[in-house]
Amino acid sequence: MTKADILMPYKMLPFVQEQLEKDFTVHRLFDADDPDAVLRAQGAKIKGVALGFGPFGPNQLKHLPNAEIVAGFGVGYDHVDVAACLEAKVTVTHTPNVLNDEVADTAIGLLIMTVRELGQAEQWVRRGEWAAGRPYPLTQATLQGRTLGIFGLGRIGKAIAKRAEAFGLTVHYHGRTKQDEVPYPYHATLTGLAEACDTLMVVAPGGTATHHAVNGQVLKALGPNGVVINVGRGSVIDEAALTKALEDGTIYGAGLDVFEDEPNVPPALLALPRVTVLPHVGSASQATRNAMGQLVVDNLKNWFGTGAPLTPVPEMSGI
Ligand code: NDP
């Protein structure tokens, strides 16, 4: 059987590359001196795309008239122009579920780091302050007694809620739809959620529908004891409004794994004492990334073996 031609626009895990090369002819665009020339010359052969971290849309699609599937790495797919893929009858897949626990662990870790200043306390030891006889100042915030508002109670949001309950937190949530099967109070608006909580966990997807949903009004509603954690997408929070709210005491602190213009973190945000920052590592363990990579491979293998994707993005139900 001839091997289908797969385009790999961006570098992927060696594990994924090796797996794909067993079953497909892989064209590594990121290795090419002139990627556009490769697309022009090879594009018509390409049947599938193994997509790493990077955008995909009409610029690539116009060179790929025979593409059938784009297998994305990651559960979020705001970097893929799904409408353009739908129009071109190209199926898009992503990697849901296999990362839920890892991201939820990161979210809770980031929350505790933020309220108990664990990153700053570690630096205190490393700088020799403790050895010099200076104890770390008492943290003015605590996890205890907090009410956690989850913005995006989906697969990962539910894994966070389960952990939060075990830590003794009260959980509320906001999304577009009330979920009858969950025991947590629902808020039809994000501002309503913020009013009811002092801790906002952002785990909603990026894209135009959620762009800057966490704005000055939401932060004001959260109040002076308010802590914002973002493991969703940077675009969901108005970063300038967040910086201002932290500077003027509208809210207490923030823990951020994702940013509006990654990998750039605004210096004004970094200068603030009650901000904890991580370099988008929500799912970034070897084991979880391998599981995500395996799902990319399995989506492609299943598509070319049976004609069906394993984990299509929801918009594909209409294709
Ligand atoms: P799900 O689709 O399972 O959950 C998303 C939730 O967000 C749903 O409950 C949905 O509820 C809600 N939501 C979606 N759109 C809107 C909207 N416009 N307004 C209000 N609520 C909305 O996704 P996952 O839990 O699997 O993943 C969530 C996100 O986490 C990903 O899209 C990704 O951006 C991010 N992520 C970040 C990682 C990191 O490394 N930091 C790693 C993995 C994921 P409803 O439909 O009722 O509105």
TrEMBL record:
Pfam families xref list: 2-Hacid_dh, 2-Hacid_dh_C
Residues annotated as domain D-isomer specific 2-hydroxyacid dehydrogenase catalytic: 23-313
UniProt cross-references to CDD domains, sorted A to Z: HPPR
Domain of life: Bacteria
Start and end residues of each D-isomer specific 2-hydroxyacid dehydrogenase NAD-binding domain: 108-282
InterPro entries: D-isomer_2-hydroxyacid_DH, D-isomer_2_OHA_DH_cat_dom, D-isomer_DH_NAD-bd, NAD(P)-bd_dom_sf
UniProt keyword NAD present: yes
SUPFAM superfamilies to which the protein is assigned, alphabetical: Formate/glycerate dehydrogenase catalytic domain-like, NAD(P)-binding Rossmann-fold domains
Keywords annotated in UniProt: NAD, Oxidoreductase
Oxidoreductase keyword on record: yes
Classification via PANTHER family: 2-HYDROXYACID DEHYDROGENASE YGL185C-RELATED, 2-HYDROXYACID DEHYDROGENASE-RELATED
Protein family membership: Belongs to the D-isomer specific 2-hydroxyacid dehydrogenase family.
Protein name: Lactate dehydrogenase
